[in-house]
Design a protein that fits this description.
- The protein is an alpha+beta fold.
- It has 4 domains: about 10-110, 2-Layer Sandwich (Uridine Diphospho-n-acetylenolpyruvylglucosamine Reductase, domain 2), CATH 3.30.43.10; about 115-230, 2-Layer Sandwich (Uridine Diphospho-n-acetylenolpyruvylglucosamine Reductase, domain 3), CATH 3.30.465; about 235-335, 2-Layer Sandwich (Alpha-Beta Plaits), CATH 3.30.70; about 345-450, GMP Synthetase, Chain A, domain 3 (2-Layer Sandwich), CATH 3.30.300.330.
- The chain is about 35% helix and about 20% strand.
- The protein contains 15 helices and 19 strands.
- Strands 12, 13, 14, 15, 16, 17, 18 and 19 form an 8-stranded antiparallel beta sheet that branches.
- Helix 9 (about 245-260) packs antiparallel against helix 11 (about 300-315).
- The longest helix has 21 residues, at about 410-430.
- It is globular, with a radius of gyration of 23 Å.
- The model has no long low-confidence stretch (mean pLDDT about 95).
Length: about 475
C-alpha cells in the first residue's frame, strides 16, 4: 500500500492554506477526503479500496466554484510543489482520477453553470462540473440536444468527457466529444487562465484546443467549454439485422460508413455478446451476430432514405431483417448494461478494452485481441468475453471486448495479477495487429505503461517536452499518460 508523503502536521497546514482560498467548509482533510473520494469506477480502484489499499491517496480535497479559485489552488500547488489531481464525476474506468501521488484532489463538481446559450448559432458555454445527464435535460427543455450520450451520463461531467476524449452512443453520426467542441477555458498548471480561439476551424496557428482535449488533466484543467448543439431530432428510424458470419456484419458496417451514410447508432455484437449481453436486455430471442441501426434528423424523409439505403446493404450481405422493435427496445434500455444485475460487482474481476483500427485491420484486430484475452489466464477462472463494435468512422471501427472472471482470487495480489495479465495480452495483441490501444476511455493508470509502445520513443518524448514546458514543477497528475512521476 502506498505510504503518505506528508506528515499529519504538513497535511493539516495544507488544509489551512486551501481554506484561505475557498473557505473551510469547502476543504476536507486527509481522512474525510479519502473516505468521500475513494477513486473512480475502474475495477482497479474498486478492488483496491475494498481490500484496504485505496489508490487515491489525497492529503486534502478542495471543492472549487470558480475559475479563479482553480487558478489560486494551482498557484498554491506550485509554491508548495504539491501534486494536484482534478476530479469530476469519477465515472472513469482507467484510474485517471486517482490522486495516487497524494497532494490535492480538486473537486470540480460545483462548477456547473450554463454560462451562455446561443440559440442562433446553436452553441453553449458550460462549466466543467455539470453532469452530461443534467446538461442534456436542461437543453431538452428548449428543444435542443448535446448529442453526446456516454453510458456514464448520470455521473460523467462535461469536463471529464473532454479530459478522456470520450465518446457516446451517437458518436457514429455526431462524433466523439472532441468534435462537439468549439473552444475551451483552461487553467494552466502554473495557474494562468487560457481561452482558446472561439471556433476550431481556423488557420491562426496550431489547434490548441485539440492538444488539450484528451490530456487527462496533465496539461491543464478545463474549467469551461463552448460546445455545438443540435435540435432534438424530429424522426428516429430503427433497424435490427442478424448475420450468420461476423465478417458479413463488419463488411456491412464498412459499406455503410464509406458510402457517406451517417447512422446515429451502428452497433455490431458478436455471437457471444448477442446471446449474453444484448439479448438479456432486449429479450428478442436473438442468436448469431446482431447489428442495431438508428438514423435520426430534423427531416424525416432524409432519415428514412438513409435507413433504407443502409438496410439494403445489410440485406445484400445476408443480413436477416428483424424490423425496428428490437432497436427501439435497446434505445429505451440502453443504459441498463451499466447497472446490476448487468454490470459486474466484486468479487468478480472485470474490464473493458476498447481498441480502434482502420477497416484494413479491424477484423484481424478483433480475432487477435479476443484470442489473446481468452488465452491469458487458466480456463479454471471461467473468463467470459463479450465483444461488440460500438463506434464507427468512415475509415474504421473499434472493438469493445468486456471480460469478466466471476469470482477472482481472495488474495489481492493474485487478483491484480490475473487482471493485469488479460490487459497486457489484449494491449500487446492490439498493437501487433495494427490497432491503437484506446478509443474513448483514455489511458489513466491502466495503460500508462504502454504509451511508449503506442507513441514511439520520439512521440512520448515530444509529449513529455510539452508537459515539462507547461508544468515545470510537474504538479498536475504526475505519472499519468505514461509521463514522468
Amino acid at each position: 500500500m502506498p505510504t503518505d508523503t506528508l506528515t499529519e502536521t504538513q497535511a493539516g497546514s495544507l488544509v489551512s492554506e486551501l481554506a484561505k482560498i475557498v473557505g473551510s467548509g469547502n476543504v476536507l482533510d486527509r481522512i474525510e477526503g479519502r473516505r468521500k473520494f475513494s477513486g473512480d469506477m475502474s475495477w482497479l480502484s474498486i478492488v483496491a479500496a475494498a481490500r484496504g489499499r485505496q489508490l487515491s491517496r489525497q492529503d486534502a480535497v478542495v471543492t472549487v466554484r470558480s475559475t479563479e479559485e482553480v487558478a489560486e489552488v494551482l498557484r498554491l500547488a506550485n509554491r508548495l510543489g504539491m501534486p494536484v489531481t482534478p476530479f469530476g464525476g469519477g465515472s472513469g474506468v482507467q484510474g485517471a482520477a486517482n490522486a495516487d501521488r497524494g497532494g490535492i484532489l480538486l473537486n470540480l463538481r460545483e462548477m456547473k453553470r450554463i454560462r451562455k446559450l446561443d440559440e442562433k448559432s446553436l452553441t453553449c458555454t458550460v462549466e466543467c462540473g455539470l453532469t452530461v445527464q443534467n446538461f442534456e435535460a436542461e437543453l431538452n427543455r428548449k428543444g435542443l440536444s448535446f448529442t453526446h450520450f456516454p453510458a456514464s451520463a448520470e455521473w460523467a461531467t462535461v469536463g471529464g468527457c473532454l479530459a478522456a476524449r470520450g465518446s457516446g452512443v451517437l458518436s457514429t453520426k455526431y462524433g466523439k466529444i472532441e468534435e462537439h467542441v468549439l473552444s475551451i477555458e483552461l487553467v494552466t498548471p502554473t495557474g494562468e487562465v487560457l481561452h482558446t480561439p472561439v471556433v476550431p476551424r481556423h488557420a491562426a496557428g496550431p489547434e490548441l484546443t485539440q492538444l488539450l482535449i484528451g490530456s487527462e488533466g496533465t496539461l491543464g484543467i478545463i474549467t469551461a467549454v463552448t460546445v455545438r448543439l443540435r435540435n432534438l431530432p424530429a424522426s428516429r428510424v430503427f433497424g435490427t439485422f442478424t448475420f450468420k458470419q461476423l465478417e458479413a456484419g463488419i463488411e456491412a458496417g464498412r459499406r455503410i460508413m464509406t458510402s457517406g451514410l451517417k447512422p446515429a447508432v451502428l452497433r455490431l455484437y458478436d455471437e457471444q455478446a448477442t446471446k449474453h449481453s444484448l439479448e438479456r436486455a432486449v429479450e428478442a430471442n436473438l442468436s448469431d451476430s446482431a447489428m442495431l441501426l438508428m438514423f435520426d434528423g430534423d427531416h424525416a424523409a432524409v432519415a428514412q432514405a438513409e435507413a433504407s439505403a443502409a438496410f439494403g446493404i445489410c440485406a445484400e450481405l445476408g443480413g436477416k431483417n428483424l424490423g425496428s422493435a428490437t432497436g427501439e427496445r435497446w434505445w429505451e434500455k440502453r443504459y441498463v448494461f451499466y447497472y446490476p444485475p448487468y454490470a459486474p460487482e466484486l468479487p468478480s474481476i472485470w474490464c473493458t478494452m476498447d481498441v480502434v483500427a482502420d477497416f484494413a485491420h479491424i477484423t484481424d484486430v478483433y480475432y487477435k485481441v479476443t484470442q489473446a484475452m481468452r488465452g491469458a489466464v487458466d480456463p479454471k477462472w471461467n473468463l467470459s468475453l463479450n465483444t461488440h463494435f460500438s463506434h464507427w468512422y468512415d475509415w474504421g471501427s473499434m472493438i469493445y471486448p468486456r471480460f469478466k472472471i466471476p469470482v477472482g482470487p481472495e488474495n489481492y495480489a493474485d487478483a491484480l495479477a490475473l487482471h493485469d495479465a488479460i490487459v497486457d495480452a489484449a494491449t500487446k495483441a492490439a498493437l501487433k495487429a495494427g490497432a491503437v490501444i484506446n478509443d474513448h476511455h483514455g489511458v489513466g493508470m491502466r495503460l500508462g505503461g504502454y504509451m511508449k509502445d503506442q507513441l514511439g520513443v520520439s512521440g512520448l518524448d515530444m509529449l513529455q517536452r510539452i508537459k515539462s514546458a507547461m508544468d515545470p514543477k510537474n504538479v498536475l497528475c504526475p505519472g499519468k499518460l505514461g509521463l514522468k512521476a
